[in-house]
Amino acid sequence: MSVTSRSTMKRVAAATAGVAIAITAAGCGTAKESGGGSSGNELTLWTHNAGNPEELAVVQQIVKDYNASQQKYQVKVQAFPQESYNSSVVAAATSKKLPCLLDTDAPNVPNWAFANYLRPLDLPASLTDKQLKSTLGTYKNKLYAIGYYDAALAIFARKSAITSVGGRVPTIEKPWTAEEFKTTLTKLKAAGKYPIAFDLGTGDSGTEWWSYGYSPFLQSFGGDMINRETFKTAKGALNGPEAIAWGQWLQGLVKGGYSPAKSGPDAFADFVNGKSAMVWSGIWNSGNLSKLGADGVMLPPPDLGKGPKIGGGSWQWAISATCDKPEAALDYLKFSLDKKYLVAMAQKQNVIPATEEAAAALPDWAPGGAKRFFLEESKKFATMRPATPGYPYLTSTFAKATQDIVAGGDVKAILDQAAADIDSNLSSNNYYGF
Amino acid sequence: MSSRPGGSQWSGPVLWAVRVLLACFFAFPIVFMLVSSLKPDDQIFADLSSVAAFLPTGSISLDNYRSVFETVPAGRFLLNSIVLSFLTVVLGVVVNSLAAFALSRLRWRESGLVLSAVIATLAVPFETFALPLLWWVNKLPWLVLQDGVPVWTFGWLDTYRVQIIPFIANAFSIYLYYSAFQSIPKELDEAARVDGASWWRIYRQVVMPLSGPATATVAILTFLPAWNQYLWPLMVVQSEELRPVMVGVSYFFQLNVEWGPMMAYASLITLPVLALFLAFQRAFIGSIASTGVKG
Fold first, then answer.
1. Model confidence, pTM
2. Domain annotation covers residue A397
3. Tens digit of each residue's pLDDT (9 = 90 or more) over B172-195
């Protein structure tokens, strides 16, 4: 390199460094920080509803009405796709940019409360007492989230398939016993009209479906993902005799040829197309059941020993711990829980309205209505997923164990390992405050 | 059919059969996507067990495409991705080639060490430094004009720049350019220096014009990840109007997955990439052959 070019480069470097220092120094006096989930009189609201125009429309209507109802605050909606919503929230929490208002899937509430993402909600009992219990997100006896609705699981079946093999069509009042369920499956398989007697819907690789979908069967056997008395161990609950019986039962459904080890990517579409006689699915598919006309029925899960169980808890609303206008956010939440919005949500979506008051206003959901089944089922059989901050680890461990069981692994060894892994995680996280 | 000298008379047909088989193997997913984008969900699944899955038969319509535009602001997302990818590619070509030029042509202390450090960063996957990067971009300054007065703001979240700037400098691109520059005889630089050319002019008028294949490779290898960005935009972008196309895919993963509209959206976002590849197919294959990159 020549002397001339060397000196030119030095000059350029010096000038660049000088500009950078000047810029940095000048910036010191005018630095701006944003955060707190609000800006001026504007509150930001995050929802998981991008890609779900019906639910998003209701949220937007609530926000529009709220903004028009008063002058002090304006709420601004930012919608995220459900599939990646949690990643966005966790990233925002990391950078201290959580919005004031956000929705959260029920099983995440304890974790987000423990991680100080959320603040307790000071809502009056007159409001919370009306709600279905499964729409209240609590952690250590404090309310952190509240929902407009709940979801429910059911066995979707062809009535004709059951009656044609001499089976009884179960009801919420008189569900199938374990023995009746087994007999019905055996007869359906023997009849051979449908390639699959009962599709468990194992094609969904998402972790939460495996916990939401199959842990209720475990609880119906008398087991659980964790000991809920202490929240300090999974031993006994996840690998005791009841849990092992559940694992063998679940595995038996596959080994016996009643259910595929891996369902198609859309088990409900397969059911509608006549590939299965019954499918384990959720309320979100109840609209598609109408394709079968009067032959399509919703049935409760079987009583496997400790009563039929389904998962409880869906999306709920919360206020971030970093919100700098919590009283305004709470005001919005109270406004949004008005009956007319719960009604609108249940009308637009296949969801269970959060209050009896809202259900009574909807013919489908009132006693005797076409969808009332789900509300009764939720009231009687819903079991919340364990309310511990350790739930994300619990659910991923349980999902893996269940996948291994369905794949044909040694049930006892799998559950022993899962219980040991969960206990190790609980211990290394100081039992998440329990 | 004539056979090649030394080859059997069957080698030609067998080779063609293998080629056709491979072409089908790679084309089937795209054909399935395009065909399924025209069918209702029920039919997609009903056709799965037969060859009908790859044929536009049954109830064919553009309903899924209409549904796409009701569910996702697909036009906006496409435009965003085109802008983001284009800027990342252009700035990436300039910055990385300049860095490689400095490493390859300018003689300065520890240039070998710097090159080794640059190459070493290739071993670190993005996921391992995504969170630290998020922390950094949330602290970085930016100059904005407020009422005509320049004011510093801090935090790049929810902007276009946060989706471009962190991905301009790329160790692999620097290494590719460095390798390409090393193969260009230094005598050319010296001849240019004798004629009074500056380093900038040598870079611009001697070295870069001789590095076409490397530039094509860098452009393509920068474009594809920029187009496919998913995790990073999820972490740093909150406003819908700033999101790229890949984030749009997750709009369809509701509890009730709508497969038809998802296939329609996948077709929409694949076609620009496919068109680009077909347009630059010759340059792409040429650059891969010349640089030995199978990225």
1. 0.82
2. yes
3. 999 999 999 999 999 999 999 999
